[in-house]
Amino acid sequence: MATKLNDILKQVAVLEVKGQTSITIEGIIFDSRKAAEGMLFVAVKGTQADGHAYIADVVKRGVKAVVCETLPEQLESEVTYIKVADTTEALGRLADAFYEFPSKELKLVGITGTNGKTTTATLLFNAVRSMGYKAGLLSTVANYIEDRVLDATHTTPDAVELNKLLREMVDEGCSYCFMEVSSHAIVQRRIAGLKFAGAVFSNITHDHLDYHKTFDEYIKAKKLFFDDLDASAFALTNTDDRNGKVMVQNTKASVHSYSLKSASDFKCKIIENDFDGMQLKIDGLEVWTRFIGEFNAYNLLAVYSTGILLGFAKEEMLTVLSAMTPVSGRFEYVRSKQKITAIVDYAHTPDALLNVVSTINKIRKPEQKFITVVGAGGNRDKTKRPVMARIAVENSDMVILTSDNPRNERAEDILDDMKAGIPEGSAAKVLVIVDRKEAIKTACAISRANDIILVAGKGHETYQEINGVKHHFDDKEVLREVFESI
Ligand SMILES: CC(=O)N[C@H]1[C@@H](OP(=O)(O)OP(=O)(O)OC[C@H]2O[C@@H](n3ccc(=O)[nH]c3=O)[C@H](O)[C@@H]2O)O[C@H](CO)[C@@H](O)[C@@H]1O[C@H](C)C(=O)N[C@@H](C)C(=O)N[C@H](CCC(=O)O)C(=O)O
Ligand SMILES: Nc1ncnc2c1ncn2[C@@H]1O[C@H](COP(=O)(O)OP(=O)(O)OP(=O)(O)O)[C@@H](O)[C@H]1O
Ligand SMILES: N[C@H](CCC[C@H](N)C(=O)O)C(=O)O
Ligand SMILES: [Mg+2]
Questions:
Q1: How many whole angstroms separate alpha carbon 133 and alpha carbon 139?
Q2: What is the enclosing helix (H) or strand (E) of 41?
Q3: What is the DSSP letter of 156?
Q4: Per CATH, the architecture of 102-323 is what?
Q5: Is any atom of ligand 1 closer than 6 Å to the C-beta of 336?
Q6: Which of 28, 34, 48, 181 for mutating ligand 1's site (highest number of atoms within 8 Å of CB)?
Q7: N or C: which end of the chain has fewer CB within 10 A?
Q8: Contact 60, 101 (CB under 8 A)
Q9: Which pLDDT tens digit goes with each residue over 4-44?
Q10: Per CATH, the architecture of 332-485 is what?
C-alpha cells in the first residue's frame, strides 16, 4: 500500500511544512528501528524515549517525510518535514487515513473498563459469527479476522497496526469488529479518528496507577473515549458502577444503560448461580448460561444489550447467549480424577480477584476447602499488590503467594510487597513459594477430593516473563500435568 502524503495530511492540523508534500509514501512508522526507504516517520514522545531524538537516524536510512512537534535544526533537502502540535494524535489520524478509513466500512464496537473487556468483546465476536456475519476481534488474548488468529502484543494495538488490521477485516468481507479499548490506548491516541458504531463501559476499579498516577486521571482517560464518539454512535454504560454515569455525561452519542441493581434500560437478574452455570432473567426472559459469577452476568448483559443496539432481535440474542462457552483463562476449570476442581482465572486486579473469590465462596459447600494461588505482575502498579494479597487471605482457607510475570523486578521484592497486605493473625494460612509451578504443585498436594484451587492472574497466558525473558508457562498445562501425576 502507498499513498500521497498531501492526501493524508488533510486529517491533521499542520503548523508548518518544509519540503514537498506531493510525494508518495510507502508506509507509516513511529519506531526508528523499523526505518526503511520511502516511509513517513512520526516522532512521538513516550515514557522512556522521545522519537525526535531519532529523526537524523531515520533520515539517513531513507525515510522520506517526518512529522514532528519541533523541527530539527538541520533539514535535509530531499526530506519533507511537517510540524504539528501533537504527534501522538497525528499518528492515529494519519494511520487511519493511510489505510483509507477502514472503521467507516465496519460496525466497530469498542469495549473499555478495568475488567471484562476481553470477555465481552470475545463473546460479541462469537455471537455475531454464530448468527452468520463475518467479524474481527482485537483482544488481549489474540486478534482474529474470522478464523485467522494473529498474535496480540497489546490489549489494543498501536495506531498503525490497528488500522492495518481493520483494513484487512474490511478486505476479507467482515461487517463487524469488536475491540478492547485500553486506557493506555485512549491516552496514547491509538484510536484517534476511528469511527465507532458503539462503545461499552464495563466498570472502573483500581489498576494501572503506575501509568495514570491517580484514580481521577484513570477515570478521565476512560471518559475521553465516550467524549470523542459522534452522534450516530451508541454509548452503553453500566449504571451499577459508581462512575457509569460520569463516563457518558459529555458524549454526543445516544446513551443507553444496563445494570443488575440500579435503574437502567437493560436489566438482568440472577435466578440461580452454581458451579455449572447461571440461570438469568434478561429483559424479562429466562435463559440458562454456562457462565459462573455475578461479574459474568454483567458481561452477558453487556453482550445482550450491545446486540440489541446493533439491531439483533431479543430472542435471537438470548438463544446465542445460552449456547456460549467461557473465554480462555476466564473461570476455566481443570478437574482431577480425585475430583479436585482447579479454576484458572485471569484476575489480576483487586476487584477481579474479589469477584472471583466471592463467587467461589457463594457457591462452594462448607466442607470444600478453598486454596488460592496468586501473584502480581512486575513493572506494573505496585499499590495493588498488598490489596490483592489481603483479598486472597480474607476470602480463602489457605493462600499460596507466588510469582506472576516478574518482568524486570525481583520476584522476592514483589512478594514482599504482597506480604505487607496479609492481615494480622493470618500468617499461618499463607505460604510463599516463589516458583509458580512449585506453588501450583503444593496447592494440589494439600488438596483432597472436592476441594477447590483458584490459580489467579495469568489466565490464558502461555509464558512467564522473568528478567525480561519469556519462558513457556501455562497454568492449565501445569495443573493437568500435576493432576496426572497424583
Ligand atoms: C506504557 C506504555 O503504554 N508504553 C507503550 C508506549 O511506549 P512508550 O511511550 O514507553 O515509548 P518509548 O519507549 O518512550 O518511546 C517513545 C517513542 O520513541 C520511539 N523510539 C524509541 C526507541 C528507539 O530506539 N527508537 C524510537 O523511535 C518509540 O517507538 C516511541 O514511538 O508506546 C509503545 C509503542 O506503541 C508501546 O509498545 C508501549 O507499550 C509497552 C510495551 C507496554 O507495556 N504497554 C502496556 C502497559 C499497555 O499498553 N497496556 C495496555 C493495557 C493493558 C490492560 O488494560 O490490561 C494495552 O493496550 O496493552
Ligand atoms: N465484568 C467484570 N467485572 C469484574 N471483574 C470481571 C468482569 N469480567 C471479568 N472479570 C474478572 O477479570 C478478569 C479479566 O477479565 P477480562 O480478561 O475479560 O478483562 P479485561 O478487561 O480484558 O482485562 P485486561 O485489562 O487485562 O485486558 C477475569 O478473569 C475475571 O476474574
Ligand atoms: N494487560 C495487563 C495484564 C496483566 C496480567 C498479569 N499476568 C501481569 O503480568 O501483571 C497488564 O499488562 O497490566
Ligand atoms: Mg483484555
A1: 19
A2: strand 39-42
A3: S
A4: 3-Layer(aba) Sandwich (3.40)
A5: no
A6: 48
A7: N
A8: no
A9: 999 999 999 999 999 999 999 999 999 999 999 999 999 99
A10: Alpha-Beta Complex (3.90)
Residue type, 131: M
User: In this predicted complex, what is the ipTM?
Assistant: 0.95
Question: What nine digits make up the cell of 28?
Answer: 507509516
Rounded Cα distance, 99 and 90, in Å: 14
346 touches ligand 2 (CB under 6 Å): yes
Residue 274 to residue 360: CA distance in whole angstroms: 9
Give bridge partners of residue 332 from the DSSP assignment.
Answer: 344
Counting residues of the chain whose pLDDT is more than 70, the rounded percentage is 100
Mean pLDDT value across residues 389-414: 98
The grid coordinates listed for 18 are 518544509
Q: What CATH class has 3-98?
A: alpha beta
Q: Report CA-CA distances (Å) from 377 to 41, 317, 402.
A: 33, 37, 10
The per-residue pLDDT for 210 is 87
Q: Does the pLDDT at position 305 exceed 90? A: yes
| 419 CA from centroid of ligand 1 (Å) | 30
Task: Say if residues 406 and 378 touch (Cβ distance below 8 Å).
Answer: yes
Please give the mean pLDDT across all residues of the chain.
Answer: 97
Structural Rg of the chain based on CA atoms: 24
